[in-house]
Amino acid sequence: MNPTDLPVPHKRERRKQDRPGELLDAALDLFVEKGFAATRVEEVAARAGVSKGTLFLYFPSKEDLFKAVVRENVVHPVTQGAGEMAHFKGTSGELLEWMMLQWWHRYGATKASGISKLIMSEATNFPELAAFYRQEVIEPGQALVRTVLQRAIAQGEFRPVDVELALHSVMAPLLFLVMWKHSMGPCCPVSEQIKPEQFITQHAQLLVRGLSLPQTP
């Protein structure tokens, strides 16, 4: 059969298929704008152009909706990056810098990076969501950094260090960057704005220089 002969989905069918994505987009907007506690499911449904009952057909609770938003906008990019790391050609230092820049392009530079601020500000009020975020986002991210550092040490590129402390040194400035973006950044004059790619590149190069073994003459 010629592909052009295949039946075209009815507009209503296409609309139904698109609804989960539209609800996730609307939820992301509102969670980033207002936070988890202040966002009401009625608002999400209205912004997506559906009823509250329709939203609950796809996501039984606001917590389920938030988890779906995180998996789509945070977990998915991390998973993609992990797959590409396995095929990276270059030194461990180059891999570390590439990984940090990719994190920015796929997450930090997007609207979804506001989720990091949401979690940090509301974690104590919603410990179950904080535990979910730790399990699905923080721990996998730490595992990627840990793998790079352990590889570099094993190959003699980096000197032996406490890997668990070092991975926080890698990640903390990245978290600062997204927190700045969603807090003080918009309030500062142009002359004080941080250029993310330059910031990350310099941070990565400082790390690599500090971790690298001295070159033997």
TrEMBL record:
<keyword id="KW-0238">DNA-binding</keyword>
<feature type="DNA-binding region" description="H-T-H motif">
    <location>
        <begin position="40"/>
        <end position="59"/>
    </location>
</feature>
<protein>
    <submittedName>
        <fullName>TetR family transcriptional regulator</fullName>
    </submittedName>
</protein>
<keyword id="KW-0804">Transcription</keyword>
<dbReference type="Pfam" id="PF00440">
    <property type="entry name" value="TetR_N"/>
</dbReference>
<keyword id="KW-0805">Transcription regulation</keyword>
<dbReference type="GO" id="GO:0000976">
    <property type="term" value="F:transcription cis-regulatory region binding"/>
</dbReference>
<dbReference type="GO" id="GO:0003700">
    <property type="term" value="F:DNA-binding transcription factor activity"/>
</dbReference>
<dbReference type="InterPro" id="IPR050109">
    <property type="entry name" value="HTH-type_TetR-like_transc_reg"/>
</dbReference>
<dbReference type="InterPro" id="IPR036271">
    <property type="entry name" value="Tet_transcr_reg_TetR-rel_C_sf"/>
</dbReference>
<dbReference type="Pfam" id="PF16859">
    <property type="entry name" value="TetR_C_11"/>
</dbReference>
<dbReference type="InterPro" id="IPR001647">
    <property type="entry name" value="HTH_TetR"/>
</dbReference>
<dbReference type="InterPro" id="IPR011075">
    <property type="entry name" value="TetR_C"/>
</dbReference>
<feature type="domain" description="HTH tetR-type">
    <location>
        <begin position="17"/>
        <end position="77"/>
    </location>
</feature>
<dbReference type="InterPro" id="IPR009057">
    <property type="entry name" value="Homeodomain-like_sf"/>
</dbReference>
